[in-house]
Amino acid sequence: MLNDPNTSGARNSLIDRLVSWPRNIINKIASDAFLSGAGWLGMAQIIGRIFRLLTTLIVARLMTPEYFGLAAIALASNEIAHVIARFGTTAYLVQCTDEQLARHKHIANVLNWVIGITLCLLQCAAAFPIAAWYDAPELVWPICVLALSYVMMPLGELHAALNHRNNHLDALAKGDIYQAIGDSALTITLALCGFGVWALILPKVLVVPLWIIPQRRRVKYVPKWPTSWKPTAKIVRFGRQVLGVELLTIFRTNIDVLIVGSLLGVNALGVYFFAMNAGLGITRSLLSALSRALYTYLCSSTPESPIQKRFKRGLGLTFLVVIPWVALQSSTAQWYVPVVFGEQWVEHGAVPILMLFCLAGIPLAFNESASQYLRATDRTKADLRWYVPFTILYTIALLVGVQWGIMGAALSVLVIYWLNAPLYYWINVRKHNQQELNSTSLTTTAAHPAAQQ
What does the buried/exposed string (b/e) look like for 379-416 if buried means 16 or more CB atoms within 10 Å of the residue's CB? Predict the structure, then answer.
């Protein structure tokens, strides 16, 4: 029996299947446009977080709180300008037609340079009042140096847009990875050499070429002066609406810090801020990768693979990643928080608040995915129009919830996200899809008599 050829053959077949299973999974992911792109961008997010954590652990032992405070002010002012720099020309070029791309990409390139130079000059001008406000004249030069990155980014922005459009998301991911590694290595080196606050500032500018090079290597683009400026209004309108959504998002992610800090004090804010970042931090990173990959996937839809079908599939795959992660993170929080972050956070009551923020990741996943769908269907105005009242309600909910402490504030965030998600879907996605279906049916019905004649 031991030498039975049938038994031996079945055993070998089972072993072959078990050995080939991981390879088949990898091949399946590599051949799928959405999964491949999400995999590359997700890997970039994970590597970036690892290197940022490593840098924080090392630099925190080498620098004084004063240096960290100065760097935080400079980097915060730079972050606001960085959001404005993501004006939306890339999002426009990804979703436009091939004919529009040929005519509009040169205008988008000029706009990138205009925005970059303008932001550089504005940030340099703002450095003086910011330094005066904090009574820290030494802030002027760091803020001005950080502004130099805005006149460097246009060297690769158009290339990055084309890579995004062509689903070359590995180029975008490699740029992010090179930046993260370069930033960490330079920051640690400069901190060890005693550069003080400059150890946190200079690397942010010096590593920009590490992002630009992969973009330019993957796609070729020869800048030309536009022959017509008529499409500028369309690009600016699309970009302005995308920027509006981005600014409202930044407002929502920061207004709770202002409200909690001013009404409950710094200690309560510390617990709230920790729980928010530990609970939603990694989920936001996952969603950043998934939503960028989803946008490219939606914009490359075809009649054989319509955008509505792609959205349902992309949304399903997004939930397939996010829901198990949220379940794992929230159910094990009471065990990993004291081990990873320290017992003091358990004593301050951060665990239940962190679990609430974890649960907010599920509706947030839907919001991010649906927003990409609206952009891909050229409905950025609807997206902006929705987020204005939502941001107002979000702020009101926080002001009400904070009356019951940080737990009330966290619960208000969770409730408002879970209420928003189904309404957002029903009004902006499902209703729009039904209108599209009815329009297609009417067109087909009207075409039948003509075809019969």
Answer: bbeebbebbeebbeebbebbeebbeebbbbbbbbbbeb
Read off the pLDDT band of 340 (50, 70, 90).
confident
Task: Give the C-alpha separation, 37 to 181, whole Å.
Answer: 21
**Burial zone of 205 (CB within 10 Å; 0-12 exposed, 13-18 middle, 19+ buried):** middle
Q: Give me the amino acid identity at 34.
A: F
Alpha-carbon gap, residue 394 to 411, rounded angstroms: 12
| Euclidean distance between CA atoms 141 and 201, whole angstroms | 10
The two tokens of residue 334 are 């009471």
Q: Residue 42 is encoded by which pair of tokens?
A: 């997700």
HEC letters along 313-343: HHHHHHHHHHHHHHHHHHHCHHHHHHHHHCH
Taking the CA atoms of residue 262, residue 266, residue 268 and residue 273 in that order, the dihedral angle to the nearest 10 degrees is 90
Please tell me the pTM assigned to this model: 0.79
pLDDT interval class at 28 (50, 70, 90)? low
Question: Which CB contacts under 8 angstroms, 24+ apart, belong to 137-146?
Answer: 138/70, 138/197, 139/70, 139/73, 139/74, 142/70, 142/71, 142/74, 142/197, 142/198, 142/201, 143/74, 143/77, 143/78, 145/201, 145/202, 145/205, 146/74, 146/75, 146/78, 146/201, 146/204, 146/205
Task: Kindly compute the dihedral angle of the four CA atoms of residues 132, 138, 140, 145, in this order, to the nearest 10 degrees.
Answer: -160
Kindly state the tokens that stand for 221: 């683009």
pLDDT band with cut points at 50, 70 and 90 for residue 136: confident
